[in-house]
Amino acid sequence: MLYTEMVTTGALIFGKGDYLAFNEEEHPVALQLGGSDPDDMARCAVMAQERGYDEVNINVGCPSDRVKNGSFGACLMAQPETVARSIKAMQAVVDIPVTVKCRIGIDDMDEYKDFAHFVDVVASSGCDTFIIHARKAWLQGLSPKENREVPPLNYPRVHALKQAHPNLSVSINGGIKTLEEAKLQLQHVDGVMVGREAYANPYLLAEVDSAVFGDVSAAPSRKEVVLAMNEYIQRQNDPYFKPWHVARHMLGLFQGQAGGRVWRRYLSQNGTGKNPDPNLLLNGLAALEEAQSNVKAFKDAKVG
Question: What are the residue boundaries of the DUS-like FMN-binding domain, all occurrences included (predicted)?
Answer without folding.
Answer: 1-280
